[in-house]
Amino acid sequence: MKRYLVLADGTVFTGEAFGAATSKAGEVVFNTGMTGYQETITDPSYAGQIITFTYPLIGNYGMNVATSESLAPSCQGVIVREVARHPSHWHNEQSLPEFLRQHDIPGLAGIDTRRLTRIIREEGTMKGLLTDTVTADTVAQVQQLALPHDQVQQVAIKQAYTSPNTGRRVVVVDFGFKDSILRELAARHFQVTVVPPTTTAATILALHPDGVLLSNGPGDPEDVGYALPMIQAVEMARIPLMGICLGHQLFALANGARTEKLRFGHRGFNHPVREVATGQTFFTAQNHGYAVAADSLASTQLIQTYVEINDGTVEGLRHRNLPAFSVQFHPDATPGPHDAVGCFDEFAAMIESSIHGADQPA
């Protein structure tokens, strides 16, 4: 059965349908990962987006429930060059087409994904529609589509919950977190309380946290301005704070910096990052369409700690006077290299220093 991808610039790709028999619209983006397609599809940061995989064969080792990064995927569609309909792996529980059909997500295979990726790189991410029917009006309809705002509210939890662990107390503010973040915190024996994105500082401080983590999530950070007073109050209370991805961008906004939309974003598991202080280089997992504007940092109390080697974007920040830092990349990886997992150890050390009365950054 044929299926089409219609882009807002008028380009139409014709391919083979798989997954759910439905039409979905969203922002068309590309991911450069060679593996980890299930973790990518179930990452809440892809809410509202149609994911194009640049690797030519996707789905060959199947899907299994233990690998998902959230309870259900929130992306709008999946595009591949070739889809594996008969996967082979001892962990396999169902194929990618079956998984997408189960979650009402359309897939498109058999198109030139290299050409599509080149269009996105040159023209930037754009609106697109996966549909089984194209008419003379379809392109105009795509151009008139309004992309959703504040996707955080679509993927974040509505009620707080606490892990059964005992240990230092960390509050995770859920803007669309990946489960791998909670696993890294659990591995360091933290007791974790996850709260909704609209939770006030008063509510968080009443939990007597030893640390607060601002999670990753989808969309434009400026749509989540309601979280900035909370972040500022947590900082002023000198509670150790760590931000990841969207949490990094919100940390920057709360401290007077500015964010900007990237032309095609960073989405993959091979992005090189350099630590400013040491010059050390490592590879990271990334998934974001916005970045902190480097020229907006001069008037703030923030210091840039990491830089993206490919395009020079800001990949990490630290407050000059308060126990707070953030990273744009995903130190939890999953999928991707674990070069940066030590950021969680840095957070743990900051918490211990704060508890013992030595929370001044070096």
TrEMBL record:
<dbReference type="GO" id="GO:0006526">
    <property type="term" value="P:L-arginine biosynthetic process"/>
</dbReference>
<keyword id="KW-0028">Amino-acid biosynthesis</keyword>
<dbReference type="InterPro" id="IPR017926">
    <property type="entry name" value="GATASE"/>
</dbReference>
<dbReference type="GO" id="GO:0006541">
    <property type="term" value="P:glutamine metabolic process"/>
</dbReference>
<keyword id="KW-0436">Ligase</keyword>
<dbReference type="InterPro" id="IPR035686">
    <property type="entry name" value="CPSase_GATase1"/>
</dbReference>
<keyword id="KW-0315">Glutamine amidotransferase</keyword>
<feature type="active site">
    <location>
        <position position="332"/>
    </location>
</feature>
<feature type="binding site">
    <location>
        <position position="45"/>
    </location>
    <ligand>
        <name>L-glutamine</name>
    </ligand>
</feature>
<feature type="binding site">
    <location>
        <position position="290"/>
    </location>
    <ligand>
        <name>L-glutamine</name>
    </ligand>
</feature>
<comment type="function">
    <text>Small subunit of the glutamine-dependent carbamoyl phosphate synthetase (CPSase). CPSase catalyzes the formation of carbamoyl phosphate from the ammonia moiety of glutamine, carbonate, and phosphate donated by ATP, constituting the first step of 2 biosynthetic pathways, one leading to arginine and/or urea and the other to pyrimidine nucleotides. The small subunit (glutamine amidotransferase) binds and cleaves glutamine to supply the large subunit with the substrate ammonia.</text>
</comment>
<feature type="region of interest" description="CPSase">
    <location>
        <begin position="1"/>
        <end position="168"/>
    </location>
</feature>
<dbReference type="InterPro" id="IPR006274">
    <property type="entry name" value="CarbamoylP_synth_ssu"/>
</dbReference>
<feature type="binding site">
    <location>
        <position position="217"/>
    </location>
    <ligand>
        <name>L-glutamine</name>
    </ligand>
</feature>
<feature type="binding site">
    <location>
        <position position="287"/>
    </location>
    <ligand>
        <name>L-glutamine</name>
    </ligand>
</feature>
<dbReference type="GO" id="GO:0044205">
    <property type="term" value="P:'de novo' UMP biosynthetic process"/>
</dbReference>
<dbReference type="GO" id="GO:0006207">
    <property type="term" value="P:'de novo' pyrimidine nucleobase biosynthetic process"/>
</dbReference>
<keyword id="KW-0055">Arginine biosynthesis</keyword>
<feature type="binding site">
    <location>
        <position position="249"/>
    </location>
    <ligand>
        <name>L-glutamine</name>
    </ligand>
</feature>
<dbReference type="GO" id="GO:0004359">
    <property type="term" value="F:glutaminase activity"/>
</dbReference>
<dbReference type="InterPro" id="IPR036480">
    <property type="entry name" value="CarbP_synth_ssu_N_sf"/>
</dbReference>
<feature type="active site" description="Nucleophile">
    <location>
        <position position="245"/>
    </location>
</feature>
<keyword id="KW-0665">Pyrimidine biosynthesis</keyword>
<comment type="pathway">
    <text>Pyrimidine metabolism; UMP biosynthesis via de novo pathway; (S)-dihydroorotate from bicarbonate: step 1/3.</text>
</comment>
<feature type="domain" description="Carbamoyl-phosphate synthase small subunit N-terminal">
    <location>
        <begin position="1"/>
        <end position="131"/>
    </location>
</feature>
<comment type="pathway">
    <text>Amino-acid biosynthesis; L-arginine biosynthesis; carbamoyl phosphate from bicarbonate: step 1/1.</text>
</comment>
<dbReference type="Pfam" id="PF00988">
    <property type="entry name" value="CPSase_sm_chain"/>
</dbReference>
<dbReference type="GO" id="GO:0004088">
    <property type="term" value="F:carbamoyl-phosphate synthase (glutamine-hydrolyzing) activity"/>
</dbReference>
<feature type="binding site">
    <location>
        <position position="289"/>
    </location>
    <ligand>
        <name>L-glutamine</name>
    </ligand>
</feature>
<comment type="subunit">
    <text>Composed of two chains; the small (or glutamine) chain promotes the hydrolysis of glutamine to ammonia, which is used by the large (or ammonia) chain to synthesize carbamoyl phosphate. Tetramer of heterodimers (alpha,beta)4.</text>
</comment>
<dbReference type="GO" id="GO:0005524">
    <property type="term" value="F:ATP binding"/>
</dbReference>
<keyword id="KW-0547">Nucleotide-binding</keyword>
<dbReference type="InterPro" id="IPR050472">
    <property type="entry name" value="Anth_synth/Amidotransfase"/>
</dbReference>
<feature type="binding site">
    <location>
        <position position="246"/>
    </location>
    <ligand>
        <name>L-glutamine</name>
    </ligand>
</feature>
<comment type="similarity">
    <text>Belongs to the CarA family.</text>
</comment>
<dbReference type="InterPro" id="IPR029062">
    <property type="entry name" value="Class_I_gatase-like"/>
</dbReference>
<dbReference type="Pfam" id="PF00117">
    <property type="entry name" value="GATase"/>
</dbReference>
<keyword id="KW-0067">ATP-binding</keyword>
<dbReference type="InterPro" id="IPR002474">
    <property type="entry name" value="CarbamoylP_synth_ssu_N"/>
</dbReference>
<protein>
    <recommendedName>
        <fullName>Carbamoyl phosphate synthase small chain</fullName>
        <ecNumber>6.3.5.5</ecNumber>
    </recommendedName>
</protein>
<feature type="binding site">
    <location>
        <position position="219"/>
    </location>
    <ligand>
        <name>L-glutamine</name>
    </ligand>
</feature>
<feature type="active site">
    <location>
        <position position="330"/>
    </location>
</feature>
